[in-house]
Amino acid sequence: MIHTGEKKDKIDAIIRACGVMLRMNKVRPDARESENIYYQMLSNYFTRLQDAKDEGRFVAAHTVFFPTEILYAMDIVPMHTETTTWMISLFTGECADLLSAGTDLGLASEICTPHRGLAGAFASGALPRPNVMLWSNLICDNTAKSGELLMEINRCPGFFIDHPFQHSEDEMKYLVGELNSMIGFLEEQSGHKMNWDRLAEIVARMDRQIELFREICELRKAVPSPFHTQGFLELLTIDYLFPGQPEATDYLETLRQELADMVKNGEGAVSDERFRLMSFFIPPMHLIGFLERISQEYGAVSVTEPFFTYWGEGRLDPNRPLESVAEKSYMIPETRMYGPLDDRALKSIVDCAEQYRVDGAIYYADVGCRHTCATIKLFKDILNEIDVPVLTLDCDVVDPTITSEEEVREKLERFFELLEDR
Amino acid sequence: MFDRFIEVNSTFPKTAHVLEHKRQGGLVFGWLCTYVPEEIMHAAGALPVRITGHNQETELEDGSAYLYVNNCSFSRSCLQMGLRGGYDFLDGVVGSSTCDGARRLFDLWRNYIETPFHHVLTIPRKSTPEAHALYYQQVVQFKERLEEFLGIQITDEKLHQSIDVYNESRTLLKNLYELRKLDNPPISGAETMEVLNASFRMPKELFNEYLKDLLRDLPSSGHTHNGLARLMVTGSVLTNPEFIKSIENQGALVVADDLCTSTRYWSDPVELNEDTTPLQAISRRYLDNFPCARMFPSDKRFNRILSLVQDFKVDGVISQIIRYCVAYAHDLPLLTERLRANGIPMLALDVEYGTSGSGQIQTRVQAFLEMLGARKR
Questions:
Q1: CA-CA distance, A173 to A41, in Å (whole number)?
Q2: Are A153 and A223 part of one and the same domain?
Q3: Predicted ipTM?
Q4: Is B104 within 8 Å of A370 when comparing Cβ atoms?
């Protein structure tokens, strides 16, 4: 009952959309060079995935916050399942179909739409069938529990990385052991040997990329802030899909230079910066364009996203590549939401608010995301202590039926009025 | 026979036993999940009590305001009870990384409720040798933190004593469940739940005495139950006996379960041998115990469910999953498939924690029982 049929997947929709963006950028005078690199990277990623079957390449489907560095080092084609599914949804408008296919599998409506739709995407054939399924418990129960059903749908073997909750020496050792076991599994399944030299090179580049992420964040502290409101989604995607890849360094260096030039020239992402915002979590995908427009209209720009762009401390060591991959999983901004929300984790929010001089914060409360929404009051309370008001926007990251543009506009306008009055 | 257990539950959370323990200067520690080893707290001289929420459907204004409505109603109910002072007698709260609901409940408890001691354990999702090594370290750290907080030594001797007490409890509960295998068991599912609830809310030594009395009296009591169908209840945390009673009032008999408040709580003993320290034995037991849906691979849990189905001669399974209890919700399609392959029908219910099983649930259970009846004919 839960096996997918052999249908043509819908990867092509993403490739075509990237092509359109690249063509449009050619005639847009304000198009960033980094944007062109970004869309070309996406196009290449999905073209490689689309061609993988015909070329007889080994494809590993994996969930979010996965150590893709290992797959690149083993010459395995990665498929980031959440990103791929929701780009397909965005560009085909088939969100309802994917969610409905997930529900048909018996998945309850309380299972978040990204994961319900992801299962639906495999079951309906919108995603290509992988050779193996890989997943971990980063960052929630949905990721932890999604893999076994996906293995059954795809009739493929799989490996689950058990990521420890806290960050002690014992836990690091356990995680490195998990990664080693997964490498053994992948070697057996794919016939590809781990190339440790290549992994070391990837780790070295990743270390450089983390530095670039940090430098980009530093530039965003400028008044006016140079990076556009939804720009952080690009940064997220870069690390999701291309960790340690040369083209990611190229993208980040180009972006950093662009932002540095803007800061030098006193240019901001919005023409008249009035409100500096902190953003929590992912806005609804179908409203990205609208959010950019309203950002310009009101001079409101997201300058920091503590759980998306504020990387943890530390460096990666190419001489200890696997340990570095494990260590990186604790440095990723989002994974700060995974461990205990202790004083240190909460302090980073206050630090962000102060360092970036934010006027207010927007909390995108995804109705299906339990572990984030459980922090709304906590974050609100600590930000209110330093006089930063927080707007909570109920939404769903992928399902457009939950929140309308009008509703969001009304709430944002009221929030901007409040900020103005202060 | 069940009055003593019912009395404990009727005064929960501030049971007479808890209050008496406090009056005598004893410490009470609350634990949030069955992956927290109770024996450690017991060996430290504290009374471990399980933190649960309201036993009935309740408006969860505070719980929802702090944890948001998309967290499971169990977490919200527990937090609300804590926020409103229901657990103000606690000297410590011990949580674990079991699931999103549990970890966020712990986070908010630590931030908003003034319990003097907080500790959270990393619980691996696998039970490989490496996972056991990690969990053992977690148990050691927990013991050390408790020792530091209380200024005491938790000796091996104390741990042995605690293991004996808890193992005795597990054996007695196993004996109670053996009675449920009978064609006409002397105890209903709802009554069993009253017994189990009391076990979380009073000193284990006393509970064991109560249970021994019950086991002595039950067989000769003339008390018997039978039903149109023998059912098993599976899924999320459940503490309201009214829910089970509502199923049994329709003519069924609940004879088995896969719940963290029942079989998964008591099923496996701590096994001591010459080569293991008590701490190693405790840690092995807790990670290897009848698994929660959080554990990988899920088939380990499914296989134990299938064994219970066979041992307790179960005709059908009722899955009750609290809304937003994602671990069980993800397992549902797979478990349905495994049960179907073994010819066991399942009724899947979406519930809220504390539900008494009225209204629509009753209608669905009735239809399920009719279907099971038709199969038997």
A1: 34
A2: no
A3: 0.94
A4: yes
